[in-house]
Amino acid sequence: MHIAEGFLPPLHAVAWGAASAPFVVHGVRALTREVKANPESTLLLGASGAFTFVLSALKIPSVTGSCSHPTGTGLGAILFRPPIMAVLGTITLLFQALLLAHGGLTTLGANVFSMAVAGPWAGYAVYRLLRKLDLPLMVSVFFGAFFADLVTYCVTSFQLALAFPDASSGFVGSLEKFAGIFAVTQIPLAVSEGLLTVLVMRLLMQSSKSDLIRLGVAKLTGSKTQQETKQGAVA
Known about the structure:
Keywords: Cell membrane, Cobalamin biosynthesis, Cobalt, Cobalt transport, Ion transport, Membrane, Transmembrane, Transmembrane helix, Transport
Helix content: over 70%
Strand order of the largest sheet: 1-2
Family: Belongs to the CbiM family.
Number of strands: 2
Largest sheet: 2 strands, antiparallel
Distance between the termini: 56 Å
GO molecular function: cobalt ion transmembrane transporter activity
InterPro entries: CbiM, CbiM/NikMN
Shape: globular
Subcellular location: Cell inner membrane; Cell membrane
Structural class: mainly alpha
């Protein structure tokens, strides 16, 4: 990921585009509602999109027709939920295809599905599960970002194996080959991205905690919480 321009057979390119489209349409509606209801979210939305753009633009050659890099989608998925991240990820991939020759227009649907749909949903699911288990916020953020990154490459491996099955071992053999090559670079990249996302979240806790509380990421603590508890008891 990103899969290069023209690398996928036409039928696969169209199919992945069709699979990604409903998620992006749903995300546009969710993004429109968020901006209308909370205009103050615009700055944080832009920062989440920029974080994804910068990280996913770092390119490490991996296998013919693709490359390895961080994705940056875990942060946006945690802050604004996966539907909105589908839109931010699609915009990122579109600009990278047009301006950086990173990915492509014919493979946009496949790249969107892996990086902007599957990765964010997986990362957010892990994050929510760990929060329900009462694990610390930063531990949950780390594993959310880690799995958002790693699942993106699992899906890309699936896409490539489906398009190019091995001559002798078929789809399974091809999947093992692509996943094995990606794992060498992607596992340490996923760990690095998890740590970087934790660092960014810590900075946001200092500079934008009110926004994180409104988004449900952080909770009220300290004297403010005690004061509200007393007011509730009096009422």
